[in-house]
Specification:
Oligomer: heterodimer
Helix content of chain A: 55-70%
Structural class of chain B: mainly alpha
Strand content of chain B: under 5%
Order of helices and strands of chain A: HHEEHHHHHH
Radius of gyration of chain A: 19 Å
Largest interface: A-B, 31 and 32 residues
Shape of chain B: elongated
Structural class of chain A: mainly alpha
Helix content of chain B: 55-70%
Largest sheet of chain A: 2 strands, antiparallel
Order of helices and strands of chain B: HHH
Number of helices of chain B: 3
Strand order of the largest sheet of chain A: 1-2
Strand content of chain A: under 5%
Largest sheet of chain B: none
Radius of gyration of chain B: 21 Å
């Protein structure tokens, strides 16, 4: 099985489900159970690195080791509990479009082995979280969503600064190469990168 | 005299100083302005400075764009690095999406409360 299914299936379902709004909850619960079974099937396998669409230095890579498998199972089971909790509510059917997209982006964030893909999935998760914050459509919801957006945009600017400094000094976006060559970078620039990443960690 | 302006180190230092000034303008504006529109405008300026910096630091005088045409038939060493340009193109799209979402939130908030100042947003229950 390809690792791409963890990202592709929730993303595809979240764009398809508006046409089947009455069955949305059952589709979400079924998808979560299927993804959980798929994640459990990967236990006891050695760590997998999967290159998508090109050869090694140019490609996007997905990495599955034991740590990312742990977080994968954690996120999928939390989302399964969430959709089981909301299965009785008739009023908020459309929430599952957003939660499926949030699940897809968070799974991609865990699996990705490429620091720019991490930025992209981080932004998708942020956009979905902003819309989920403003879901009540009253004064409080919009006020909270606007504050969250200000903080999140500043954090994404600092994450972009860190990624740019890494690419300018190391010349690669792959996480393994960055980990090997980070000690050879000038100390001040290491401090700048870690300070920017600390700002992002503070937000989330 | 004028040809010294067209050298790679001069261009890199000019781009560094200019984009750092733009980043400072953006972040200071986001921290000091009270209008919600102006805050998000300042954040857009700060992101644009990063785009200028990243594209400009990978430009060198005499290199061409990484596109194959009739004259340039294969990728060679006199092309600039294509990875930053692809990255910045993606980042511009994400920045526009976030900015439009923020504008829709601000418009809806203004319709509900007739208020657009960030220091008078006290719906979440803080005392002023």
């Amino acid at each position: 099985m390809s690792l791409l299914y963890f990202v592709a299936v929730p993303l595809l379902l979240s764009f398809l489900t508006p046409f089947y709004a009455n069955y949305l909850r059952y589709i979400s619960v079924g998808m979560n159970i299927a993804l959980l079974a798929l994640a459990i099937a990967f236990i006891n396998t050695p760590s997998i690195t999967e290159y998508i669409s090109f050869d090694s230095p140019l490609s996007i890579s997905f990495v599955l080791d034991s740590a990312s498998l742990f977080f994968l199972t954690l996120f999928i089971s939390i989302m399964l509990l969430f959709s089981l909790y909301h299965i009785k509510e008739e009023s908020r059917k459309d929430i599952f479009i957003l939660t499926n997209m949030l699940l897809a982006s968070v799974l991609g964030l865990v699996l990705s082995g490429d620091i720019f893909n991490i930025y992209i999935f981080f932004e998708i998760a942020s956009i979905t979280a902003y819309i989920l914050t403003s879901l009540n459509k009253d004064k409080k919801a919009y006020s909270g969503a606007i504050r969250y957006m200000i903080i999140g945009t500043i954090a994404s600017i600092f994450l972009l600064i860190a990624i740019m400094s890494i690419y300018l000094n190391i010349g690669s976006l792959n996480l393994v190469t960055i980990g090997e060559q980070f000690a050879t970078v000038n100390g001040n620039i290491q401090f700048l990168i870690l300070l920017s990443l600390y700002r992002v960690w503070n937000k989330s | 005299m004028l040809s010294s302006f067209n050298q790679t180190p001069f261009l890199h230092s000019a781009i560094t100083i200019g984009s750092f000034l733009l980043l400072t303008i953006g972040l200071v504006g986001a921290l000091t302005q009270k209008n919600l529109f102006k805050i998000f405008l300042s954040l857009a300026i700060a992101e644009a400075s990063l785009f200028i910096y990243f594209i400009g630091m990978h430009f060198e005088v005499g290199k061409v764009a990484p596109i194959t045409t009739n004259e340039v038939t294969q990728f060679s060493s006199n092309m600039v690095d294509p990875v930053p340009q692809a990255m910045i193109l993606t980042t511009i799209v994400i920045a526009i999406a976030i900015l439009s979402l923020a504008l829709s939130f601000i418009i809806n908030y203004f319709k509900l409360t007739n208020n657009m100042r960030v220091d008078e947003m006290n719906e979440l229950g803080e005392d002023r």
